Amino acid sequence: MSSSSKSKIYFFFQAPVTLRDRTRLKIFIETIFQGEKKILSSLNYIFCTDRQLLEINKRYLKHDFYTDIITFDLSPPKQPIEGEVYISIDRVKDNALIMGEKINKELHRVIFHGALHLCGYGDKSKNETLQMREKENKYLDKYF
């Protein structure tokens, strides 16, 4: 954890979701940035509905489809990382069912996925997706 006791990570809930042990999760997310040798300034996670995330997707990315996560890097150039991660609880639940995964594990995968995007990992190509999945699994294994 950082030298100060004040968290750099905040959770906002526009849709209901069970997120247990939030303090431990915030500390762990900070260790992801440390493990990836990145400096974190602040990070907001916003948990929302499909409809809310679709509107963000249309407005800011010009995409007209549902997604589970959108990550915005708001960092000034060459400064510590500042970001916002929007997560659709509806998509997380549906994806967990499709993949036969527990909702809690899928939720944490997506939370870590957003942090990894801010650390510089992409998921547009096959190789990027494989590397992202390896990192997600590494941190899921460490967390659980």
**Biggest β-sheet description:** 4 strands, mixed
- In terms of structural class, how would the helical and strand content be classed? alpha/beta
Determine the N-to-C terminus distance: 18 Å
> How do the strands line up in the largest sheet?
1-2-4-3
CATH topology tier name? Collagenase (Catalytic Domain)
Shape: globular
> CATH superfamily, called what?
Metalloproteases ("zincins"), catalytic domain
Beta content comes to: 15-25%
Describe it for me?
There is one protein chain. The model has no long low-confidence stretch (mean pLDDT 95). This protein is an alpha/beta fold and 144 residues long. A four-stranded mixed β-sheet has the order 1-2-4-3, sandwiched between helices. β3 (69-73) and β4 form a beta hairpin. It contains five helices and four strands, in the order βαβαββααα. The chain has one domain: Metalloproteases ("zincins"), catalytic domain (Collagenase (Catalytic Domain), 3-Layer(aba) Sandwich), CATH 3.40.390. It is globular. It has helices spanning 22-35, 50-61, 89-99, 103-118, 126-143; strands spanning 9-13, 40-48, 69-73, 81-88. α3 (89-99) packs across α4 and α4 crosses α5.
Task: Set down the secondary structure blueprint.
Layout: E1 9-13, H1 22-35, E2 40-48, H2 50-61, E3 69-73, E4 81-88, H3 89-99, H4 103-118, H5 126-143
Parallel strand pairs: 1-2, 2-4
Antiparallel strand pairs: 3-4
